[in-house]
Amino acid sequence: MAFEYIQGQSLMHRLDPRTKVLFFALVTVLIVVVYDPIIMLGLLGVIVLMYRLSGIPLSKLWGITKALLPVFIMFLVLNYFVIPPRGATVYFYLLPGIAPVTIETTLVGITSALRFVLFIWLSRLLTFTTSISEILIAMVKMKSPPEIATSLGIAFSSVPLMINQFSTVIQAQKSRGSQIEVRNPIKKGISFIPVVVPGIYLTILRGMNVARTVEARAFTYNPKKRTFRKMIRFGGEDYAFLAVSSLLTAVIVAIRILYGWFDYTFILRDVLKLI
Amino acid sequence: MASRNPVISCRDLRYTYPGTTQPALNGINLEVERGEIVLITGATGAGKTTLCSTFNGLIPHFYGGRIEGQVKVLGLDVKDTSAGYLSTKVGMLFQDPSSQLISATVEDEVAFGPENLGIPVEEIDKRTNSVLAYMELSELRDRPPFALSGGQQQAVGLASVIAMKPEILVLDEPTSNLDPIGTLNIFALLRKISREEENTIIIVEHKLQELVDIADRIVVIEGGKIALEGPPREILAEEAVLLHERGLQPPQVSLLAHRLRAAGIPIERIPLNVRESLEVLSKPLQALRGASTASPDGGSQPRRVTGEPIIEVENVSFQYPTGVLAVRDVSVKFYKEDFVGIIGQNGSGKTTLVKLLNGLLKPTKGNVKVFGLNSRESPIHDLIRHVGYVFQDPDSQLFSKTVYQELSFGLKNLRVPREQWESRINSVAKMLLIDSLLKEAPYSLSRGDRQRVAIASVLVMDPQVVVVDEPTTGQDPRKRREIMELMKVLHEKHGKTIIFITHDMDLVAEYAKRCIVMKDGRIVLDGVPHEVFLHYDELEGTHLKPPMITLLFKELATRYNVRRDILTVDEALDYLKSNLVS
Q1: pLDDT in the model for residue B291
Q2: Assign residue B440 a region: left if phi > 0, alpha if psi is -120 to 50, beta otherwise?
């Protein structure tokens, strides 16, 4: 599930959600300035290390990565279609006359695919270590109305319930002979109508029930003065973590701008020269 | 009832829902005093829930509609007071437990109301902890509410209302998903709360005999009006026959006493429980002591069905992907002549077992053979031709524009030739009394009719076995009996094998020819109800209780020479009449 939270007491768990959002922004900057695939692999290594330190089983990471493989390949292949060879040696064409394969385009493709993986790994690391309620409280702290934070919270916690209801609908229709596991995509689409219609009905019903419940539990009594039981605090660890990661990012960005390091062939340049 | 300072007072209350013309409440006059426990009962659609919704202002502020007359709660006119404010004073538990759970964990759920009250965090934590401990939910505090059993969900819902410490508690069928012992525990808890906290409690319930000693007053609502009102003792005892005729469930012993009296047997007063019944019956039964003509085995009760089994479950275990072992090494056979009631506590594996019978689930160990087909090897498509499965909630399957199209869905899926459709649909529709509704839209029908459409949509595929999962949950006693009468017709007139799951012991006693009791994924008792319900201790171990009338005869049998295996009021009446009058 996209919002699975894994309980823990690691540094990543303890950090304020706002720190994590800023950290995410910093890493995004890094992803933009670094082009070298080997360094990108190094960054990925850092993320793996963070998974280990946060106590998240690496099997989870492998699960995510497996699902990403087709996208990874897609990124790689698409690059050949959009990046011109710029005078580099063309080894062959993927299709006659188009999509030239050169060392440079291959490296660019690998980097963009790795960037994508890094992006997903990091987002999942943050959602694994941040509970929904922390995110909502962060929203309230960042001055979003408490009504919005609470509605989002209820929506998220309704997801598993709705999944249960949908699977009941599927079972009920299977019991009436509906063949949902057909291969033909058009037939499959049609076979889902009996699932989607009761599903929509049940979802609307859920919305009505939630509205009624929230009203009956005095949510509209005085939302501005509502107590949020769990609080988040921006503490020493947050300052330290942000200081270190901003400094590293700043240094890398400065080197990139001043010396032009970290391009596609930054590390492999000498190796490539030999070829 | 006149009182000087009622916490709730309704005067000529009339209310009509938006988009309807028929008033749901039609002239209610009611006053409730502080600290009172009021039991509201009546048939489905009588207006019980509607009345309750006026107490916290959901009516008219949330639902809209037209309200006339006056409702005052703690001196405030609900028309002029926001539902948000009223909800801080009136805590309301709704009927369907899962519909009112909105948080990610049990703890968050219980804390949600107090958080809205804006009280300090320490106080919220204190309340949450004490309510969770009080309701024995502390171990579940980190679990997501949706993953709990229906009974646990109901307890969490109640906990989250109590944690707000409202002055008035309004509970709409708080035990509908609970087994008999769980029900008694909740009622005992309510009595404790009302004594310790001086809360006013309003309970909507169909389970009347369990509330005799708890409620101060009973209010019977019919067609949006108060039909009867008074102390439970008076109403339940004296008006038992009337209540029964109106489709409600008075204590079985009260009903029996009335019937005996009508048959000319001298009954001094109408009892409300087993103990009182023993006293009342002691005189007429004097004549019987030691001189009974009864044979202890009885005569007319159904015998165990045998013959060639049509479904064979052999050493079957089933484990869900979550790791829960829901069925453990179960072996059981079902026969063509079976009419089986499956009972057991929440989470005992009843639903999992029946889902194994039509291939919705495949056993993780062992084999299920359905009409000779092994459910592992045969696609569900082939199994459902023999075993039809009706889900509890009709809304989880109806999707067509008309009832006719809804019924043709299964036929189309099974590739039944089109020229047969009309005759099959018409005959099933007639059987279920929905033949006049074939052109209607399923969603526009009443809940009872939607359920009939759902049953029809399975029957039209003409399975030999019909499995119905909790067809009676959330229905009033009359509707429950209607559904069971329908099953009886399918069984007796159309030769169908019926397997049903229920929490209602009285229905099993009355309708089932065979009763299976499950506990922790195992079958612990399996036999004719007349045997099964005599295993009082085993039943109690599974959180179940035989019908009240059976418990009466258990006690009678220790004092007189009478049969123990009496399961229904009718049986008791026939038996006593034939032995006492002669």
Answers
A1: 46
A2: beta
Place of tokens 């209302």: B161
DSSP B152: H
A29, A75 contact by CB (below 8 A): no
Q: Which residues of chain B have pLDDT under 50?
A: 1-2, 291, 293-299
Residues of B in contact with A132 (CB under 8 A): 104
Residues 199-258 of B with CB under 8 A from A: none
ipTM of the complex: 0.85
Q: Cα(B46)–Cα(B30) distance, rounded to whole angstroms? A: 16
CA nearest B442: which of B433, B427, B454? Answer: B454
Q: Could you give the CA distance from residue B175 to residue B205 in angstroms, rounded to a whole number?
A: 8
pLDDT digits (tens, 9 = 90+) for A193-240: 898 899 888 888 988 999 999 999 999 898 888 888 877 788 899 999
- Helices B106-116 and B150-162 meet at what angle, rounded to 10? 30
Nearest of B581, B529, B573, B579 to residue B252 by alpha carbon? B573
Which letter, b or e, does each residue of B303-325 get, where b requires 16 or more Cβ atoms within 10 Å of its Cβ? Answer: eebeeebbbbbeebebbeeeeee
Asked if A193 and B147 come within 8 Å (Cβ–Cβ), the reply is: no
Instruction: Give the largest CA-CA distance in chain A.
Output: 75
- Integer Cα distance of A256 and B241 in angstroms: 91
Predicted pLDDT at B368: 97
| Chain B from 383 to 442: CB within 8 A of any A CB | 384, 388-389, 391, 393, 395-399, 409-410, 413-414
CA dihedral B180, B183, B189, B190 (to 10 degrees): -140
Helix orientation angle between A103-129 and A17-33, rounded to the nearest 10 degrees? 180
Spatial CA neighbour of B225 closest among B246, B244, B207: B246
State the best of B396, B405, B470 to mutate against chain A, taking most chain A CBs within 10 Å.
B396
Q: Which residues of B touch A154 (CB under 8 A)?
A: 102-103
- C-alpha–C-alpha distance, residues B211 and B312, integer Å: 42
Model pLDDT, residue A228: 85
Q: Least CB-CB distance to A218: which of B58, B94, B116?
A: B116
* Coil vs helix vs strand at B308: coil
Residue of A nearest to B88 (CA): A218
Place of tokens 């709409």: B172
Q: Kindly state the helix (H) or strand (E) to which residue B439 belongs, with its residue range.
A: none
Would you tell me which residues 154-173 of chain A have a C-beta closer than 8 angstroms to some C-beta of chain B? Answer: 154, 156-158, 160-161, 164-165, 168-169, 171-173
Nearest to A216 among B92, B111, B121 (CB): B92
CA dist., res. B260 & res. B552, Å (int): 15
Cα four-point dihedral sign B425, B427, B428, B434: positive
- Cis before B60? omega within 30: yes
CA torsion, ordered B199, B202, B207, B212, to nearest 10 deg: 60
Whether the CB of B160 is below 8 Å from some CB of chain A: the reply is yes
CB pairs under 8 A between A and B: 164
B146 shares contact with chain A (CB less than 8 Å): yes
Domain coordinates in residue numbering, chain A: 11-130+235-274, 145-225
Domains of chain B: 8-245 (3.40.50.300), 256-300+550-580 (no CATH), 309-547 (3.40.50.300)
How far CA B78 is from CA of A211, B205, B546, in Å, comes to: 19, 24, 44
Query: pTM of the full predicted structure?
Result: 0.82
Residue A97 per-residue DSSP state: T
DSSP B27-91: EEEEEE-TT-EEEEE--TTSSHHHHHHHHTTIIIIIT--EEEEEEEETTEEGGGS-HHHHHHHEE
